[in-house]
Design brief:
Elements (H helix, E strand, L loop, with lengths): L2 H24 L2 E4 L2 H10 L3 E5 L2 E5 L16 E3 L5
Antiparallel strand pairs: 1-3, 1-4, 2-3
Length: 83
């Protein structure tokens, strides 16, 4: 990889990370239907506030440090709470 390509890649990754952080900071909830993701969220200390059949809703707590870049996690951010 050329130095220019490496620098472009670095800038693009920084932009994606910034976008993820903005979404994370402005959404109140995190929703997943994946059992493994649910367990990882519980292990990390996120609060499960709703379980509707196989959908799990957690409070998006900015005080909890989570790395949402794990490709194995399946979730979405939302401001809608379904009970």
């Amino acid at each position: 990889m050329t130095a220019r390509a490496a620098e472009t890649r670095k800038r693009m990754l920084a932009k994606v990370t910034n976008m993820e952080n903005n979404i994370n900071n402005f959404s109140n909830f995190i929703v997943t239907t994946d059992e493994e993701t649910k367990n990882k969220f519980l292990e990390s200390g996120l609060s499960l506030i709703s379980q509707n059949e196989n959908a799990y809703t957690f409070v998006n707590d900015p005080k909890k440090i989570m790395k949402f870049s794990d490709n194995n996690l399946k979730f979405s951010f939302t401001n809608k709470l379904t009970i």
